[in-house]
Amino acid sequence: MASRSSGSQVRLAELVAAISLGIDLGFGQPMEHVLRQCLIALRLADRIGLDEPRRAAVYYTALLINVGCHSDAYEQAKWFGDDFKAKAIKYDHDMDSIVGQLTGAARLLGSGNPPLRRVRVGLEFAISGHREVDGMLEHHAARARALGEQLGLPDTVLAALNAAYERWDGRGLPSGLKAEEMPLEARLSQLAEYVEVAHRLGGVGAAQALARKRAGKQFDPRLAALIVSDGDTLLGGLDDVSSWNAVIDAEPALAVMLSPERLDAALHALADFSDLKSPYTIGHSRAVAELAARGGEQMGLSTGEVTQLRHAGLVHDFGRLGVSNAIWDKRGPLGAGEWERVRMYPYVTERILRQSQALAPLGAIAVQHRERLDGTGYPRALSGGAVSLAARILSAADAYQAMREPRPHRDARSPEQAASELRGEVKAGRMDAGVVEAVLGAAGHRVQRRREGPAGLTWREVEVLRLLARGYSNKEIAQRLLISPKTAGNHIDHIYTKIDASTRATAAFFAMRHGLLPEEEFAQPGLAAPRVAAAT
Prior knowledge:
Blueprint lengths: L9 E2 H15 L6 H15 L4 H13 L8 H8 L2 H6 L9 H9 L8 H13 L8 H15 L4 H8 L21 H31 L6 H14 L8 H7 L7 E2 L1 H16 L8 H15 L4 H13 L9 H4 L7 H8 L1 H9 L6 H7 L22 H15 L11 H13 L5 H10 L16 H11 L4 H8 L3 H15 L4 H10 L23
Antiparallel strand pairs: 1-2
């Protein structure tokens, strides 16, 4: 269900909640695990009477407490076989200490390899590999704090994020804080995190047993006692509400609305966050976003459309968090099952972003960036005009940038090789020629000068004209081209001015006279005709 946010402004709570869904994926947990732990933490905060500023700190801490844990997924998969499995042992109820968790991870060394190879991995790890994971938990906390700083969160939240792996008994990391030296926000969030997993798997009784067992050790005994004595109330009804809406509705007073500048900065932080998933994708999303935006400008998109395209580029790979690095960083060919996981990641991106009414348009573009015009792409095998212009631009920018970067199975392509392969996609009918040339021009390649459409129409205006001639309303045109009705109306006004028309019939006649309709007769390279239902 979409949130009830109105307008195009994004609330900080929506952005952070969206990040939390990505955190769930990285731990192999069902989506909304973090949202539910946030609700539990807030209920505990209300029970002990925290004021609004402290409650706000609990809110953001609970949503981000594990945000740094995927940043070394590459090393986790390298040594333990699968980064999801390596992180999932965190919730093994038999592990009640940091040492226990590290011992559990050691049992996974070399997982997925033949016995002899597992032994070899174990020896390599003992000799030198352990240096790659030494201090891993401290690094997770530091990276969570760094993201909090980028999002402009207060010092109380930053301190709590830095203490994510401390323990009440002083046996935690990185500083060995003991008892009330540990920030209250971290104590509440940590308890809520583990209790959520226990409750989801075993009900209230399991959650109470966990709280009782770890009270005075990992957990603040006073807070754990509340779960033990009043678990039915504190954990009641979690399955009966939409976690997303409940968390957004529970946002502290004076909801923070992100200004355009702050939203842009936050989305850049989110891009860096997702790109840390693998060393092969460092900086990828930023580069794709800028290349797509420049390509959009060359294609005649409006300023608002270019901004939206840039933002979609920043978040287009967020769903990669839902696929193990055992797949992303594999040097050999992927198996059929592994490919199926890969083919779903754009859908996961959309699923995360569509929860927010303000972020959903970015997800609608991002989900199509792996589609191809001939229907061979994924996740939905869309073809022709079903792939929006913005998605075609993003697709070309993503493909070009990916080829310019190294991957586990190949070296980086040269600019000339990348351009040649991208043009090969055009010849094969998979990519839009005009879009590819615009993106290559934005990347600094020499391209053939693309003539304008008749009467100086941009290619976006040609798309609008075709739909207008078919009798589609402003709203229907906007839905098909993934733009706002107001933008569609502006395009129509410009079209009427350029072609000296004032009615749909006159515009349709102009389109037919200049070979723009029917679509199949329009031979100008670079614009795949939208496949719309003919008006009958």
